[in-house]
Amino acid sequence: MATTNANGTDNSRLHQTFPVLSDTEIARIARFGTVQQFARGSRLFTAGEIGPGMFVLLKGVVAVTQRDGLGHVVPIVRQGPGEFLAEVGQLSGRPALVDGHADEDVEALLVSPAQLRALLVAEADLGERITRALILRRVALIESGASGPVLIGQPQSPDMARLENFLRRNGYPYHLVDAAEDPDAAALLTQYGACKLLAVCPDGSVLVNPSDEALARCLGMVDTAERNELFDVAVVGAGPAGLATAVYAASEGLRVIVLDCRAFGGQAGASARIENYLGFPTGISGQALAGRAFVQAQKFGVEMLIPAKVVSLDCSRDNPLESLAIALADGRTIHARTVVIASGARYRRPDVPRLAEFEGRGVWYWASAIEAKICSQQEVALVGGGNSAGQAAVFLSRHAAKVNVLVRGPSLAASMSRYLIDRIEATPNISLQPHTELVRLHGGSDEGLTGATWRCHTSGNEHDCAARNIFLFVGAEPETSWLEGCGVTVDKHGFVLTGAAASPGFPARPSTALESSVPGVFAVGDVRSGSVKRVGGAIGEGAAAVALIHQHLSQSSAVA
Q1: What is the pLDDT of residues 518-532, one digit of tens each?
Q2: Integer CA distances (angstroms), 219 to 97, 184, 310, 391, in order
Q3: What backbone torsions phi and psi does residue 272 show, to the nearest 5 degrees?
Q4: Could you give phi then psi for residue 245, rounded to 5 degrees?
Q5: Three-class secondary structure assignment of 303-356
Q6: Cβ atoms of residues 225 and 308 within 8 Å
């Protein structure tokens, strides 16, 4: 049986997390870095500050520690000659999550983020070992719960759940402190006006009930610099389709930026387990699949702006040589020669009175470990009959006392994969309620959701349930409001038209299969009209779009 050390690292994977490089391997790395000297006691990197890259130790020992904004310090590891210091954030030059100081005089090879990416591509076998270690170190930091921002408040409050979801979906470690059990935390809440939630960043900054965007800026997850460069491809949406586009485009030498207003992974990233994706016979969580793609994209040099909300697309250019302009909510503009619409779709809000009042306070549009813990040993209801609903129902059944699945039709057969239907039927605490819809929610502003009522269409009977948590996976509405005014045509439901359906926008040539009505603007994944709404299909479309992007760029160059 595998054991776990004090820092959250599985001991069976310890040698993969902290490998020792041979002299030959260090020599191969040397051409990508520069030798640096550090006196005993000096810092090589500091939590909350931009990391300089990867250090390969040649002489001396470095102590790596976790430090939170409350001043708590926890040792992680001491590393010596032949070992390297970095985690996955250094692929893109993000702020360090830990501190590293020299226990004695140190000589190290510093490999900058750009050179680290070049190393991983040029030295494939060595790059594989390094990449695995970088990922495992981030995983260990997440599992240890002792680094990153400190979230202080009530563990099961709606705003705490919101911030936890945001950080987890973005693969960012955090430390949760229950103010009811920690006097110092309670005193800090009182100091800031008896607020209900504080976030303390590694640099000591304190935020009162912050938005996701405010916390992201405090942590350095997104920069605030002006973007004056011209990208070959700007991808709006970091779900499977968007990440696939980014990986294939960047690996072929194109300059790519990805923007998403929430987190990488899209709806698929919230799936507890995907079992029909090719090559994973035992299944894989949506978060794990998306996380791998996210790291892979950064390895090839993709720039990530997450969270960054896109508000509009300006397609007013007189010829294909001019750039398209993407306006962000923070006032910045991204310029690109081509744009890929991969913004996906969100779950529809059913027409139920008081729904908005309980969103995030008992009404959820996802089912992660955080919500599963909140509804432990409770009766819950889940509305929806698609694969995402099925995956969520099976996942929740391991935690909740009973899961009621409400579907408008006679069964799940019309919209759910057979393997999920079989699993639901074999799970004793999942109860299918066919011909049924949610009609009322119960509760108040103080206690949140306290119950729900649903109605059977065939009998007209209504049933009251004391479910304090309702999960909604109903239909899909495309995320296309940011396209209004740019000329991209959509179908009657708002999904982007591509190919032959978009050809009227092309007087000089027919549009390509995944191209919208605006030349150089492509659509992939769930946001595209006629897409298959499957992870595998989304990834295939993302890959196929890159060939069409190359075609568009070559035609533009020929015109020049």
Answers
A1: 999 999 999 999 998
A2: 9, 23, 21, 32
A3: -65, -40
A4: -55, -45
A5: EEECCCCEEEEECCCCCCCCCEEEEECCCCEEEEEEEEECCCEECCCCCCCCHH
A6: no
